[in-house]
């Protein structure tokens, strides 16, 4: 018998993890993870939809980013909570896979968890929830596929307008939503220009501050900023019709010898011959460039003043230090190949285009190659007032470009504006009634979670969500309102399909898949173990790093790391 707990105190406590380790377990852990995810979702919640707000994020380097793109915001929020990081990952995966719907994914995942929370608190085992959620997501995805409308087999004109509708839907929630028709058609042209080869880097986006958004234009080819140039550049002609283009990866200038090169001369006169040899080498290179018949010479490395003047005398345009990706784009567009030597330049490696000109855009000069034969590149030159604004415009266009690419490939679309979400929600509710047991409740809660999208759309536009959702539920329940979603302009409901609020089915399928996976992943975690970084170890590491750099190691060690930057 144990009096007053005396003998129990004698038994040694088992120490498994080093002290300071934070291990939280069980139901409380699950609930706190769910709360963390809800908090993350609240950060991006208001950015959803055409009336969504933007976030201004100020990072430690002092850069400010204004963004409406869920993935961008999630990346910039420095989230340390381990469970909430999962939401950041799904936003990123949605961004890289489909490009749009990043906010949707985060919202759905958080909402699934929120719906699961009361069940967890009531003691339901999380595996039961996970099983039901998985089933529900399969059913939902089948339903999407069934409701999707194909745009295959239409003429090019029809397809263009359909794709522009998809792009406009994506852009309507962004900062440049006011000009969505203008940008949507630009994006569609750019995507169709690169054809089936869908390397994204073939669509270049160049940013030039100044002017307004309507001054942005699409170049059917390649455009890049005028590069660093030497004397003689202004004497070169700035416009060519059907020129041949030579792309190089060598420098056309006098190269200094390696610092330890040594030449012994017995006669001072021999020195001249060595200098001449250097000059002959470069003149030989330049001659070969001219003989190739090329009228435009672009190089990845520097083209020196001698070469610039030489080309200018022969009416040839040259640009050195062209960035790698611009050079690759020019190569793809003009059908040329980048050469690493000037020997044996044959016609096959030269590119060509219909028009080359140098044009002033705002404050910058741009070299523009248009009317390219393979036509597999496009460049969008963006104009706008503030730098942040242009950056956000670029992110928005990236989303739109991805969407149009996806819609081209998997040519099925679903109605947007929360219509498809309501329809799946109705379908799952009906389905839940046919199931016996607890999973009926869980699938019902999944269905309820899907309504977060239309609800958030209303909230962000400042309408009464309860009202609109009731109307929507009634419309969808009547059977013929499958395409009805929130009408942002009037605060009522409208046929999304007729209003051309469309999105590719891939976006929704991917969103539901990713959100369900994330929710299941978070529900299946019931313990978090956090190992403390021991103070002493950190101190020692810093000290040894200091000592390793040579003197002064000991001095810092005594001062407890005063040499570190103060946070």
TrEMBL record:
Keywords: ATP-binding, Chaperone, Cytoplasm, Nucleotide-binding. Signal peptide: none annotated. The keyword Membrane does not apply. Gene3D superfamilies: GroEL, GroEL-like equatorial domain, TCP-1-like chaperonin intermediate domain. Residues 533-567 are annotated as: Disordered. Residues 537-548 have a biased composition (Low complexity). One of its GO terms (cellular component) is chaperonin-containing T-complex. It comes from the Eukaryota. The keyword rRNA-binding does not apply. Heterooligomeric complex that forms two stacked rings. Molecular chaperone; assists the folding of proteins upon ATP hydrolysis. Known to play a role, in vitro, in the folding of actin and tubulin. Belongs to the TCP-1 chaperonin family. This is T-complex protein 1 subunit eta. The gene is LOC109715711.
